[in-house]
Amino acid sequence: MSETGCSKSLLLLTLLLAYLGQVPGEGGAFQRVFQTEETVRQNKAHEMRRQMNFRASPCSDFYEYACGNWETESTPLAKLEHRIDVDLMRLLEESAHRKDSALARQAKEFYQSCLVARAHQSQQQQDFLSDFIQQNGGFPAVPGSKWAAYNLEYNWAQVTGRLRRHYGMDILIGLRVSYNYASVQENSIYLSEPTTLIPRELCTKRHLNERDSAYKAIERLVATQLKTWLAMGNEESARLAGEIVSLEHELCGGMHGLEPWNAEQQLYTANFTRKTLSELSQLYDLDFKTYVSSIYDQTIFRPVYMAAPDYYRQLKRTLSIRNGTQIANYVMYRAVAALIFPLEDKPEHRPAYCLATVKRLLPAALGELYASQYVTEEFRLQLLQLYDQLKDALKRSVSADWLEEGSRRVAQRKLSDLQLILPSYEQPLALRLTLDRSNYWHNLRQLLDEVQAQQLKRQLEESPPMPADPVEAYETRVHYRPVQRRLEMGWALLQPPDYDERYGHALRYATVGTVLARQMATAFDELHWSIGLLEHDNWDPLTAYRYQNRSECFGRHVEEYLQHNSTATQLLINSSAGLNIAFNAYLTWLGLQAPNNDFVRLTKETLPGLNYSNTALFFLAFAQQHCNPKEQHYGEPNLWPTITYSVRQSHSWTRLAVNGPLRNLADFAREFHCPAGSPMNPSEKCTIY
Ligand SMILES: *[C@@H]1O[C@H](CO)[C@@H](O)[C@H](O)[C@H]1NC(C)=O
Ligand SMILES: *[C@@H]1O[C@H](CO)[C@@H](O)[C@H](O)[C@H]1NC(C)=O
Ligand SMILES: *[C@@H]1O[C@H](CO)[C@@H](O)[C@H](O)[C@H]1NC(C)=O
Ligand SMILES: *[C@@H]1O[C@H](CO)[C@@H](O)[C@H](O)[C@H]1NC(C)=O
Ligand SMILES: *[C@@H]1O[C@H](CO)[C@@H](O)[C@H](O)[C@H]1NC(C)=O
Ligand SMILES: *[C@@H]1O[C@H](CO)[C@@H](O)[C@H](O)[C@H]1NC(C)=O
């Protein structure tokens, strides 16, 4: 290695260590391996105990008992994801291994070029921007950007179409490709709402007072960006920022918040008109045809769905009262903002920014690096075994008497078809790139172009369609895919300190088990079972009626606890199902152990220094997944006026997520000796699965 290369990587290492140092008590992957089983178990017990509030009564508020001492300004899930990110940065930082695929090497190379890129005002960035602007219609606000040449023939549909094609940008038009819900074995194009610079919650019909201070803050941010990126003067940048934000603000007037696009949800709830692009172009007087053919380099004749009629009517109105200069300024500002380093770019923030870019552009490469480091065949077997046992437990639930015989059979078949898919990575092909470690901008441009080309090709060709956002190994997501009849799950939930096989099975079922079971049960909730997506997989009217009757019980619990809320009711139904299924599966596992032969294994079911039975530990671990920082200000509601709170009874939505499902479980009440009628042991118990 050359001398400069060497000192560079030393510098990077120091940065990374500084980054690690920000999180006390959380080493990266480095130390985990060397701990003995006893230490691991003691640490876990210590950590669980530290979060508890022993002055609280488990029978009046189990959340308070389990999480009352939670002192981190974050949730367990956010902490886990942060730790995974640190691991990912370290993996990308390492020089290429022999076992790395060509694609993974490209990800490392790209990441490293991103880390060392000089940012604002650097020559490379200026050259890149200047080229980019000239090639994409010009930027009227920037003198010498060839705007004049385009002025007369500026075609916004063509410009934004090309920006989509080569850079994956989503400006003025939100084009989505996902399952055609009328015939799920093929894909279709949807014209939907685009992403916006104004945050989603401020960008809807409902929220539209332009004098709101939030919009002023956005304007100031845009002005600062224009000054920093394009060396504009104070007045000019303030004027332009005002113009850009006001144009978008107008667009928000037609939006209902369809972003982020949820392909699976659309399958069940969408009801859009489907027409050809020519028809839609005429109907809305917007050139959709040019937009889409600039993306695909060909005319698309198949009809597409109009998913956002209000938005496109609003777009038409907005475009017709603005001149070309204003439109081009908006388009180019959005484009530049999507490419360039953020304003708060500092050496210590750079790794996180570069990681986010790799996640977005090369998720599979990152998944491969993660899987090869952290996933073992043993892990895979453990998880598949857990899944089988959850499946058995759910099968017993869907065989209950309240389901009619016919629907029971449908459910059992649906369940036995449902597979757990864990990401695995065969040596993928490299992208056609020539990466240069010292030229990030050159790399970024090629990468965006190549990634887009591949995605567009796949989306139109593949039948049956593949999910647009497959779950990668480093993710904590578990996702139900009705069309493919499967659950996808990442490996990240199986990382210490959240998961370690040495903690025992009670903890395994209580954490990974409940999360997985909850998603499995989703396949049998009202939405996913009342509409037969695939041939004959819906339920009969009597079963539907009984399901409805049972869900009303949950609705009553929610209403009594705080107030009527149908989202909270759905969540409670899901999480009760998750808890019940995982708990029953755990009991089955216990029953399968022979008391004498498996004695050693059974002694591992409790933790040293925590005086709880294995089943009590199960409930504790379940609860502690949901600890929440807001809740530590218990008793000082004035500090947090935004949370819905019933001060007198200290009821909140966060607490309901823990207390709600446990209240429905007789085994919980028995375990903690909760008298009948106490808050955690009400007489009316609700169950579905
Ligand atoms: C779909 O929309 C059409 C017209 O917009 C309406 O007549 C029809 O009832 C809707 N179908 C469903 C299932 O909502
Ligand atoms: C476009 O509108 C802006 C603001 O109303 C105005 O300053 C500008 O001169 C107009 N440009 C053209 C080319 O008409
Ligand atoms: C509806 O549920 C209640 C309890 O929640 C039960 O008493 C009643 O029998 C159920 N009705 C039907 C028709 O299943
Ligand atoms: C309804 O419940 C959800 C989830 O529990 C919560 O986030 C939301 O704030 C609740 N809505 C109202 C209006 O209280
Ligand atoms: C829970 O239920 C709602 C409504 O049926 C659904 O949208 C959601 O995906 C379900 N699953 C989970 C894990 O929350
Ligand atoms: C453990 O808990 C039981 C009851 O839950 C109690 O009788 C026993 O004294 C406790 N042991 C210790 C060592 O705290």
From TrEMBL:
Keyword terms: Hydrolase, Metal-binding, Metalloprotease, Protease, Signal, Zinc
GO cellular component: plasma membrane
Gene Ontology process terms (BP): protein processing
Main location (coarse class): membrane
Domain of life: Eukaryota
Cofactor(s) required for function per UniProt: Zn(2+)
One Pfam family matching this protein: Peptidase_M13_N
PROSITE patterns according to UniProt: NEPRILYSIN
EC category: hydrolase
Domain Peptidase M13 C-terminal: 480-688
GO molecular function: metal ion binding; metalloendopeptidase activity
Residue ranges of domain Peptidase M13 N-terminal in the record: 58-419
Signal sequence interval, chain numbering: 1-25
Alphabetical list of InterPro entries matching this protein: MetalloPept_cat_dom_sf, Peptidase_M13, Peptidase_M13_C, Peptidase_M13_dom_2, Peptidase_M13_N
Membrane topology, record value: Single-pass type II membrane protein
Compartments it resides in: Cell membrane
EC number, as in UniProt: 3.4.24.-
Family: Belongs to the peptidase M13 family.
Entry protein name: Uncharacterized protein
Lineage: Eukaryota, Metazoa, Ecdysozoa, Arthropoda, Hexapoda
